[in-house]
Amino acid sequence: MKAANDNRPHGAAVRFVVNPRLVPLAKAARRLHLTPAEFEAKLTAFHRHGFPLPRPLTGHYDLVAMDVWLDRMHGVSYDENRPTCPTGAASLVDARLAAIG
């Protein structure tokens, strides 16, 4: 709120929202709900499972590549940018419903 005698225009603190695609290790860790220390401790195992390496020029992680990796890890496939059920999920649901009766 402006003081009554302050007639100077004030710009917004953030004029444009920027959603970065490349993020440092701490934010990549947060994306996976891990602390930076937990993330670093698990990186070798992540890389064995195909987790994307940081970009060589920046050392930052690509959030899109991380999302693609997560989707693959959970069997999510895409058709024309539209998510579908994880592989085998429909038959799993049918089997569980049949077991309930």
Walkthrough of the structure:
By secondary structure, the protein is mainly α. It has one domain. Helices cover 43% and strands 8% of the residues. It is built from 4 helices and 4 strands; from the N terminus they run E-H-H-E-H-E-E-H. Strands 1-2 form a two-stranded antiparallel ribbon. Strand 3 and strand 4 form a beta hairpin. Helix 1 crosses helix 2. The longest helix is centred in the middle third of the chain and has 13 residues. It is extended and about 75 Å long. The mean pLDDT is 83.
Query: What count of helical segments does DSSP give?
Result: 4
Q: Report the end-to-end length measured between terminal Cα atoms.
A: 62 Å
Note the main sheet. 2 strands, antiparallel
- Based on CA atoms alone, the radius of gyration comes out at 22 Å
Strand order of the largest sheet: 1-2
Order of helices and strands: EHHEHEEH
Low-confidence stretches: none
β-strand percent reads: 5-15%
Quantity of strands, as a count: 4
SS-derived structural category? mainly alpha
Shape, principal axes of CA atoms: extended
Q: Supply the number of structural domains.
A: 1
Helix content: 40-55%
Query: What value does the average pLDDT take?
Result: 83
